[in-house]
Amino acid sequence: MKRLYILSVFFINLIMVSQTNLAVKTDSLKTTKVSRQIIDSLDHNDGPYLFIKKDTIIEKSIVNGKIETKKSDISTININFPDEPSILSDVPEIAVISDLHGQYDLTIQILKNNHIVDESLNWIFEKGHLVIVGDIFDRGPKVTELFWLVYNLEKQAEDTGGKVHFLLGNHECMVMQNDLRYINKKYWLTSKLLKTPYNDLYGKETVLGRWLRSKNTILKINDNLFLHAGISEEFISNGFDLEKTNQQMRQSLFEDDNDPAWHTLYDNYYDNNGPIWYRGYFSVDFNKSDINKLLRKLKVKHIVVGHTSQKEIKSLFKKKIIAVDSSIKNGTYGEILFIENGIYYRGTMKGEKIKLDE
Question: Domain spanning 87-355 has what CATH number?
């Protein structure tokens, strides 16, 4: 009996020690998690986000985890952005890049080495047109920086007779419609610190939100059609109006998703055959006769798309389809397309210019 008693006491003590150790480990994990959150907050920098409040611009930035707020008169910045034209002609030099996905550092490396911007990130492409075929949002950690870069380049280009065209991709529409599946974890912290839902940082009463809602989804320059994903035969089966498509896509970003009008627009423009989701050009079932028929209906000779990732810029059907999503989203390599007087070149990350293969 004495031995049984001693054994019982031993096991009880062992259980108590184990429970104590488990509690210490649990507390330690909780402390580590909290500490990590504190460190992340202290290292966190983002913004600025500009909110429109009647006659005032409220600018909010996060600097080393602390919120900095400034107020300025609404006259100090443009808050009205007219809808951009859908069709342009007689443009001799075009550069095209796609699916930047928050990869700011790689993007500026490509733009610098290919003489779109200088070392100070000023526009040096002169009268050329830069087309960004959608998807700055999501995945990478420097989305805000990219938007303000494009915003500033847009104004600089106009001053020299050039132009920057940012087209909406599926990820722009997703974020503005509160589909946040792919945002970088950094922006969950931004949202928490600013006490604002992430999609509201690009809402209808913000400068970047209004700017984005003025953008086209599809653009025709010369005999090239530019858009994020592609246009299917099904999408244009009842006729195709380029300007109407752009207007409807813009309108969808102003409608509340509880409104029946939004669902009508969504059903007509956001399915897998629509301009921001279609991947059919890359299917083994898509053939030469399909593309020839499509080009005739669209009245263009080339369609330039992103959305479907490649290792480098790629020609399909003898440059009738040109895929410009060169996987910049991975943050390691990317390219830019040049169209110069009807000749197509790949601009590499190092700035080499290579004539595009058939």
Answer: 3.60.21.10
